[in-house]
Amino acid sequence: MKLSVGIITFNEENRIGKTLDSVREIADEVIVVDSESTDRTAEIALSKGARVFVEKWKGYGPQKNSVLEKCKGEWILLIDADEVISPQLKEKIKSIINSESPSSDVYKIKLRNIAFKKEIKFGGWDDYVIRLWKNGKVTISDREVHEKYKTKSKIKKIKELIIHYTYDNIEEFLEKLNRYTSQSAKEYIKKGKNASFIKIYSKMLFRFIRMYILQLGFLDGYEGYLLAKYSSIYTMTKYTKLREEYYNNLGNDTSLVITTYNWPKALEICLNSALNQTVPPKEIIIADDGSKQETVDLVKRFQQSYPQSNIIHSWQEDKGFRAGMSRNRAISKATGNYIIIIDGDLVLNRHFIEDHIKNRKKGCFIQGSRVITSPTSSKEIMEGKKINFFDKGIRNKMNMVRNGLLSKMATKIDRNLRGIRSCNMSFFKEDLVKVNGFEEEIEGWGREDSELAVRLFNIGCKKKKLKFEALTCHLYHKENDRSRLKKNDEYLANAIKSRKTRAKKGLNRYGRRNSSNY
């Protein structure tokens, strides 16, 4: 058997007949792998003598490899369902496959595109593509889109044409654009790529300039303009989908823990800001230190209104200020491997979760900052007013400034206890497990966060003091009872002196038995 012709198809009933007719005189077998077409593609291919295999779509690379596995010929010609072999090319292929000593084992063939019913010769569309080779001499990558052809053989060019009927109209172009750009975005996500606004805009602009001006697309007239314009839209759409997909998935391994106690109005504002993030967390866990029914009802209302946000209520009995225990219970329920901890009296900047995730670093925990509000400004915020830099009644105004460049300059990594506040911190869960979480022997206000930081330092972690990112606004409230502070200072001093690494009463008290939602 000399030549196997391979084709992948999906809903190509208007083109597949013409494609198969063009190879009838040279093909010893035609292999069609159809991706569950809903039209007459498979029926037409069978009537033209092709062997048809219907398979679920796996991506361009895997689908074409499925074709290659089924080809038995000495030579393989792999074409698309919207391509036609010109009469001149048929004769050229005959001479190659029947030659006792062909000039190469692998050939690139010139592709001539027909777009919007016009022959396109400029704009970078007139190109050579690998289509003909001896069986086994070319491998195809398993990429879902923009698959790569690899060979160790010398590649020769064939100037005779494959005629490629791309798009008959704008509607068809846009339909394919939507499908191809989604596949491209998924492929980029697998590689961990992201796209900034500047990247999206610059790539879109450059694509148009390159095709229409640098590659002389304007010489193809109105159709050349359309191709350059819509190709730039394709580029913009691909990277926009990538950006959207990237941010939708960025928080998939992150749990947000919100500590609260009997202040449902503040918790409501905090939750609303958490639900308005550029990057949503995998789950939101309310670490409730014994709040009354009003808070329980509030959380239930949010759970019903935002079922996709996976809001979990972790409640414990009110036996005094036990923030460490409350947080440990919540952390034990977390399924994310990265934990962000905040207080329920904070209003979060919409980039808060994004900033924590992007700044995470192995061997570090993050300490964020906050803006302090006066009773008057806090009341205004709770009534719906948005704060700005020039408002009166706000302290630490520089903590309202979000700037990536300033953040890189001002953010420091050290082992200093100064500025430790659990109202805005984040950790790798594995580090919290190593130190057994918060020390529950510390009760009442103060030092449970600093004591945790000491134990993290003692196992080799550092503090990343984050500035100009992960912004929060603290709602004013009266100071908590500090009668236990002296005792808690002793716990902290002992942790420093003994180089303590694990809490005596901590995360290990809960385990799987507390993994259910409250």
UniProtKB/TrEMBL annotation:
Keywords recorded for this protein, A-Z: Glycosyltransferase, Transferase
Segments crossing the lipid bilayer: none
CDD domains xref list: Beta4Glucosyltransferase, GT2_Chondriotin_Pol_N
Gene Ontology molecular function: any one: glycosyltransferase activity
The name this protein goes by in its record: Glycosyltransferase
Enzyme class: transferase
Domain of life: Bacteria
Annotated Galactosyltransferase C-terminal domain residues: 412-477
Entries under InterPro entries matching the protein: Galactosyl_T_C (IPR027791), Glyco_trans_2-like (IPR001173), Nucleotide-diphossugar_trans (IPR029044)
Annotated Pfam families: Glyco_transf_7C (PF02709), Glycos_transf_2 (PF00535)
EC number: 2.4.-.-
Domain called Glycosyltransferase 2-like: residue spans: 4-108, 255-377
PANTHER family, per database record: GLYCOSYLTRANSFERASE (PTHR43630:SF2), POLY-BETA-1,6-N-ACETYL-D-GLUCOSAMINE SYNTHASE (PTHR43630)
